[in-house]
Amino acid sequence: MADSRKKIILIRLDKIGDLISTLPVDQILDDTKYDVAWVVQKGMGAVVDLGARKRTCIELDKSNPKESAKKFQDFLKSFQPEVAISFQGPWWINFELFKAGVKTRSGVYSQWHSFLFLNSGVRQSRSKAEKHEFDYNKDLLLNTLNLKDDRRIHFFEIAKPTDLSLLQKFNLTAKNYLVVHPGMMGSALNWSQAKYIDYIQKQIDQGETIAVTGTQADEPYLTDIKSQFENHPQVRWLQNQVNLKDLVLILAESKKVIAPSTGVAHIAASVGADVHGIYSPVRVHHPRRWAPRGPNVTVYLPAGIYTQDPGTILKEDIDPSCMNQIIIR
Asked: What domains does the chain contain, in order, with CATH numbers?
């Protein structure tokens, strides 16, 4: 029997946090009516696969447009979507949708190629941070498909790992350690390393075990912290020691996760960890748009600043040292 479902592709070629804030839009779609495939940035398929909801996706490499455009062409010929919604992607994505004759080509009307190659979409001023990134994406999907909002707050749900044997490797006991992840991509303001050192030391003094996570890319945020704690008996230094699935386990079984505005905060929230996010009051960084979503999330902003409307706060108006006003106990 032929599959009568409407074929839709959802496109987000972006970083972990952006992708996780977009993936839950497909929860609005009835699986009996829609056949959905995702198009994501190279390396992000592993993030998609973490979801408790099973999703189909292909990866494209934005840094190699010639090869990726050909792969995308082949995918469009094979899948033959009736609808494509581009939440984020380079110009050639919209061009390939146009060239393939996809019936409904939707996205945010902003850059030149959106007006030239798309035939459906909305205007959104996302930089004003008036709502969460998920809600902007949801509005685009609802508008494209002429659907009603189900009014639920959706989030990307990651199933908790059941095999805890990895914890033994790092001498960790479930629910008996804190995860501190100081690193980020530099797209927002963060605690200083001195502030992270102060926090970790206070937790050590209270008898806590600390797991510090990060990758090689996080090195600029870890040098001073590493020199202070790398060999401390109460600190487990996990930089470059775990893969993505291992990280999910480490986060899921922690007592608490402390992280700035970065993909790790979103992953931790998605797996149900107790997340304490360090966020900037700057309009384009604001947690109103970028806070991680999950069942146990607390977000912190500098005292005396966070009460202001994010629409009035620009990066040039903020002294980065204000972030050190944030206190997490």
From this structure: 6-145 (3.40.50.2000), 165-325 (3.40.50.2000)
Res 150: pLDDT: 83
The Cα–Cα gap between 54 and 290 comes to: 24
pLDDT score, position 173: 98
**CA distance to 74, 171, 203, 232, per residue, from 225 (Å):** 47, 20, 14, 11
Q: Which residues, in sequence order, are CB contacts of 125 under 8 Å at separation 6+? A: none
Q: How many residues does the chain have?
A: 329
Copy the structure tokens of residue 305: 């600043």
3-state secondary structure of 100: coil
Other Cβ atoms closer than 10 A to 211: 24
Cβ neighbours of residue 186 under 8 Å, at least 6 residues apart?
Answer: none
Residue 205 CA to residue 98 CA, distance in Å, equals 61
pLDDT value at residue 311: 60
| Residues facing 35 on adjacent strands | 7
pLDDT at 48: 98
- What tokens were used for 248? 């999910």
**Residue 245, C-beta contacts closer than 8 angstroms, at least 6 positions apart:** 50, 161
Torsion angle, alpha carbons of 152, 289, 297, 223, to 10: 150
Residues of the chain scoring pLDDT < 50: none
- As a whole-number percent, the residues of the chain with pLDDT over 70 amount to 95
What are the strands of the beta sheet with 120-122, ordered from one edge? Answer: 56-60, 34-41, 6-12, 83-88, 104-108, 120-122
The kind and range of the H/E element at 38 are strand 34-41
If we measure between CA atoms, which residue out of 71, 19, 11 comes closest to residue 267?
Answer: 19
Specify the pLDDT at position 310.
63
Amino acid at 88: Q
